[in-house]
Amino acid sequence: MLRMKEKGMLRKEMRRLKSTRCVFRPVSVEGFTGTAGLTWIDRVEQPWFVTTAGKRLCIAREGYTWLQLAPEAGEWWLTVMYDRDKQPVQYYFDITLKNFMGPEGEMRFLDLFLDVVINAEDGSWDELDREELDLALEQGAIDRATHALALERVRRLERTIDGQEAAWRALCRRVRETFREEQKTDGDVGEIL
Q: Is residue 192 domain-resident?
């Protein structure tokens, strides 16, 4: 039976990621206010490949970084996967019921099943897991109002991303630049930008 999942910036639920380091903090830059996190992937079970919109992409392997954005509004959660050359591979939006601070100080979210992914190479995007959202309603994991809320939020997000990959890239660059201090103060973190 499906159920709504709680996930966090440390991504402990992702068992493929064997060793990571993560820094997160409140961020306010033009176009974004919320919490941002940067995760360095040191070791994976094996390189992680996904196929989206007919394209096979590697989203995690040693030397990759993930930037996560959790806006105060709490309608979505963005994870941007960067390759070893610090180039974005994809932008992955989880549609969320809410983003919130967990009891241990880690930013967390309640996942509403639906996802939207943008291919960083060509800006194409795709909506994922609609059947999972519908099944959650059918199984009673969510009610009709929550189902409708998820659909409303994904439509609102789709209107803001359609043809706007360059704007998202610029926003993520601005947020990522706020982590420059880790580059200067933590010798084992390595070059960030």
A: no
Tokens representing residue 32 in the block: 């974004």
Instruction: Write out the residue range of the structural domain in which residue 23 sits.
Output: 6-182
Q: How many domains is the chain partitioned into structurally? A: 1
**Structure pTM?**
0.89
**Token code pair at residue 83:** 């390759």
pLDDT level of residue 121 (50, 70, 90 thresholds): confident
Q: How much of the chain, in percent, has pLDDT values that exceed 70? A: 93
User: What are the beta bridge partners of residue 128?
Assistant: 115
Average pLDDT in the 34-56 region? Answer: 91
Question: What is the dihedral sign for C-alpha 148, 125, 8, 177?
Answer: negative
DSSP letters for 50-67: EEETTEEEEEE-TT-EEE
Whole-angstrom Cα distance, residue 191 to residue 186? 10
